[in-house]
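As a warm-up, study this chain.
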Amino acid sequence: MTAWALVRGAARAGVELAAAAALAMLAIPVVSFLVGSDWFDTAGLMLVDATAVALAIALMLSAHASWRRAHNGARDSVWSSSARTPQSA
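Now compare it with the structure written out below.
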């Protein structure tokens, strides 16, 4: 993850990594659904899926907030996605 942030920049990588993590979290209940109803033997397993969905929602909200900050924030911030133009002397 650190390498991705170094290559892409903090602003872009923050959005992309949060979205990727959200998709990874959504894979948990999707696989549970594909396995079938026999998987839900206990309430604990249903709680794992519910927690994964809640975390995926939180991560997507985080990705959206990072995107807004990158596009609407101060241009001289490390979190800005807009490229700075060099100032002429």
